[in-house]
Amino acid sequence: MPMRLPLLIVLLGSTCTFARNADSSALKQLKEGENRLKEIAPKFIAATTDAERTEAAWQVYRTLDTLLSLPESFDYGWDSLRTKTISILSAPDHKVRIYTWNLILKDGSFKHFGYLQTRRKKNLETYPLLDTTAIQSKEIVDEELDPSTWPGA
Length: 153
Description:
Order of helices and strands: HHHEEEE
Strand order of the largest sheet: 1-2-3-4
Radius of gyration: 20 Å
Distance between the termini: 63 Å
Mean pLDDT: 80
Structural class: alpha+beta
């Protein structure tokens, strides 16, 4: 019996170290991704041509797609992106988070991009939001929509 206690302590210690290293790795990935986004995101606002702006908006979309798959992304601050290029809003109950950004084209039209994250207990779900206003056949008022029919915001 006395031998089991030290073994248990060693096993618990290694499990905690593994979990801490996994958290550290995810945090490092999120910080590096945020730095990449900090470089890319201003281009969808300031680039000279619509093609450059559009490509930058899609680069943000693809980068966030990867980063938001990490469970730690839900609680990550994204401090350098908030209000400068990407809107990030969290529900008061911390169960929903939405990320959106707008692409303004030379003709004055807009394209909207985003992601919706939901957290239920330990499960994190991420839904891509692509603007469908150009293909909506009617005005949307008081309708329940799913992420595939998001009208942009």
